[in-house]
Write a structure and sequence with these properties.
The structure is a homodimer. Chain A is of the alpha+beta class and about 220 residues long. Chain A has five helices and eleven strands; from the N terminus they run E-H-E-E-E-H-E-E-E-H-H-H-E-E-E-E. In chain A, strands 1, 2, 3, 4, 5, 6, 7, 8, 9 and 10 form a ten-stranded antiparallel β-sheet that branches. At the A-B interface, strand 2, strand 3, strand 5, strand 6 and helix 3 of A face strand 2, strand 3, strand 5, strand 6 and helix 3 of B. Strand 10 of chain A pairs antiparallel with strand 11 of chain B, so a sheet runs across the interface.
């Protein structure tokens, strides 16, 4: 791929870990791109190490300001480990399409990804935890937090919320058509992009829903890449 | 979530790393479930460790028999590291829906995920490499391998193909409606599932496509969860 791009701003100065070494023109270190990719998704993959063994756990996340958050049970292996303050790699990737070039070698994928490094920290204190969980709920289903049954003290205790400062972070993006070897453009083979995207289907009522309760309007606005 | 399930077969005996400790009823160790989840996806997240730092790289993968494969440039940081034979965690996760319970605490996500541990090995030899790349191509776009320009010796050399034996592996699945606290079912709040899925849009011709070349039929059969 050889598409030319103007040099983007570097809000997040690249470090040895975040500098994209291969296909560096796909890298973005600006806040707008990084936050745009993060705010479009729901599931991240968190990498951490226990006794030299890497673990990669998929989990829901959200962003608030210069931090990303995820949560889970206080009893989970991942979160018990992370609250010790270990290095993590936080990765989000959205698949946008198959790029079918005239050769397999130049075939590719259109995607938007973010990789962040740092030490995850637990969110402590009931007030901060509640605020974080509310931000998560409102990101996905704005308005629902006030409708649903509020967390109990016991539930809050059983919930660990982790956060990672967005400091050492980079995005990598590929879009557009294939970039074939010049001589391959003459070949008699189809080439192009097969776009892939996520859709939200109509909500399905809980079988035990009280008759007459309609699906709320905010469900129509849910969008996840 | 308290849905009852019959005990599934354990084709992959759980190890300390793959035994699902929390919500163990969501775990599956049978080949049919694990392979079904793997065969439905395109992008995995590979975790590995360099100098104690975890890295999580999203990349395309495919399965062939009892192995998963991924590939990339021989120059990539991930692949250079992996061909030394280091421990990896290979994770695939498909998002199927938002589970909106009457409380935030019981709200969840419907998903299918697989986590595999082991040591990734490079596929060596031109014949084996070609066979692996053909399997990848045919998994996504059956019939295209014979149409497109074949890999050159130089391209093959520049491509590293890695594989991981599926041996220490587990799946985790959540589906179905929310499972609220019994007393919350009386609350006047909507609950249910918002289904999420991936769709494939109509193919977009390469701007430099030779006029008259139609998009091939196999594009209509592409499916990626």
């Amino acid at each position: 791929m050889r598409e030319a791009k103007p040099p983007p701003p570097q809000d997040f100065p690249p470090t040895p870990r975040t500098r994209v070494k291969r296909l560096g023109y796909r890298a973005c270190y600006d806040r707008e791109t990084v936050y745009g990719i993060l705010d479009a998704g729901l599931v991240c993959h968190v990498g951490y190490v226990i006794d030299g063994q890497p673990y990669v756990t998929p989990t829901a996340y959200w962003r608030d300001g210069d931090r990303v958050y995820w949560h889970g049970s206080s009893a989970s292996r991942m979160l018990r480990r992370l609250k010790e303050g270990v290095p993590v790699c936080f990765t989000v990737a959205h698949l946008d399409g198959l790029v079918l070039a005239r050769s397999g070698f130049h075939s590719s994928i259109n995607y938007r990804s973010v990789m962040a490094f740092g030490t995850a920290e637990p969110v402590t204190g009931e007030v901060a935890k509640l605020a974080a969980l509310e931000a998560f709920s409102e990101r996905i289903t704005p308005g629902r937090w006030a409708e649903q049954r509020a967390p109990t003290k016991q539930e809050l205790k059983a919930t660990l919320v982790m956060s990672l400062e967005l400091e050492e972070v980079a995005a990598k993006v590929r879009d557009g058509p294939p970039a074939d070897d010049e001589e391959d453009y003459a070949l008699d083979v189809w080439a192009g992009v097969v776009p892939v995207r996520r859709v939200i289907d109509p909500p399905e009522d809980d079988p035990r829903l009280i008759p007459g309760i309609a699906a709320p309007d905010y469900l129509g606005a849910v969008k996840i890449d």
